[in-house]
Amino acid sequence: MKIAIYARQLAPANFPFLENFLKILEAGQHQITIYQSLLTQIRSLIKVPEGCKSFSSGSDIKGCTDFLCSIGGDGTILDTLSIVQDSGIPVLGINVGRLGFLSSVGAEEITGAIDSLEKGHYSLDKRSLLRLESNRSLFGEVNYALNELTIHKKDSSSMITINTYLNGEYLNSYWADGLIISTPTGSTGYSLSCGGPIVAPYSGNFVITPIAPHNLNVRPIVVSDQNVISLEVEGRSQYFLASLDSRSVTIDSSIELAVRKQDFTMNLVRFDNDNFLSTLRRKLNWGLDTRN
Q1: DSSP-derived 3-state class of residue 176
Q2: Cα angle, residue 180 at apex, residues 106 and 169 outer, rounded to 5°
Q3: Do 114 and 176 belong together in one domain?
Q4: For residue 93, is pLDDT > 80?
Q5: Helix 110-119 and helix 15-27: axis angle, to 10°?
Q6: What total number of domains does the chain contain?
Q7: Calpha distance 213→194 (Å, rounded)
Q8: What is residue 69's three-state secondary structure?
Q9: Catalytic-residue membership of 74
């Protein structure tokens, strides 16, 4: 197999795991490609197999990679979206962080995970994305997100107003600290922490969740992802913050925003013993009776 490895700056405590992971791949005679900044960090600290290649962008591995292994937490997986883009390269999340909701494989499970990949005992979890369109280029070519678009106040403690429309029809003016538009994948992230509902991955929806709304009767709403959601932002401050997953830019009230479903998906590797409902129970303690 041709395996690409991505990680942010790894903590020294994770070096033994990475060295062992590379030994497993080398023993299996797999072709290894490591993200350039990660390779620079580890080259003098751990043993790197001879013949390892490096990559610095998605174009370096597109069409010549079977799997991209993301080592870190869920934030690291969100980073990989800007690498795989529309290539369809399956992403295997290896959790060395804390919660690891999307990163389904623990560091201690890596031997079994590679064995399952070799035997083809896995499935691809095709997660829908949202795309942000605007009258100015805000995020370049990677104007899409796996989790959510967030509009948030920036330079003032005063709330902002986000006028929101569905297919051009007025929905509501949210007077709040901000607004989250999430995919089903993102429904278990920021949206959930702001009171939004959990939405199953293949439900075909967006969730619109206000952040600390002034009117307490304004609740999150679930709409079809066939809708185009348009946004107009205004407030006392001149500038606001727009975020796609972990990437943020500053905008002003002259920016016109629209959200729609992206026309391709992100492929996450899932093994036979792993699914959305079991992850909910295991990672979020969903439905767990904690009474003693």
Answers
A1: strand
A2: 140
A3: no
A4: yes
A5: 30
A6: 2
A7: 10
A8: strand
A9: yes
Mean pLDDT value across the chain: 92
- Nearest residue to 269 via CA among 118, 126, 78: 126
Q: What are phi and psi of 114, to 5 degrees?
A: -65, -40
Q: What is the CATH number of the domain that holds 83?
A: 3.40.50.10330
Q: Which two tokens stand for residue 257?
A: 């925003």
Quick one: pLDDT at residue 292? 62
Instruction: State the Rg of the chain over Cα.
Output: 20
135 in a domain, yes or no? yes
Which residue segment(s) compose the domain that 176 sits in? 130-261
Averaged pLDDT, 32-55:
92
> Per the residue annotation, which of 60, 66, 74, 225 is the catalytic one?
74
Between 146 and 50, residue with greater pLDDT: 146
Output the 3-class SS for 10-45.
CCHHHHHHHHHHHHHHHHCCCEEEEEHHHHHHHCCC
What was the pLDDT predicted at 100?
Answer: 73
How many residues belong to the chain? 292
Residue 291 located in a structural domain: no
Per-residue pLDDT reduced to its tens digit, 148-206:
999 999 887 889 999 999 999 999 999 999 999 999 999 999 999 999 999 999 999 99
Same domain, 245 and 269: no
Residues 138 and 118 reside in one and the same domain: no
Contact 28, 34 (CB under 8 A): no
Q: Which amino acid is at 226?
A: Q
d(CA 227, CA 218): 20
> What DSSP designation does 196 have?
P
Do both 190 and 89 map to the same domain? no
- In a domain, residue 290? The reply is no
Q: What is the mean pLDDT of residues 64-69?
A: 96
Whether 173 and 276 share a structural domain: no
| Per-residue pLDDT reduced to its tens digit, 213-233 | 998 889 999 999 999 999 999
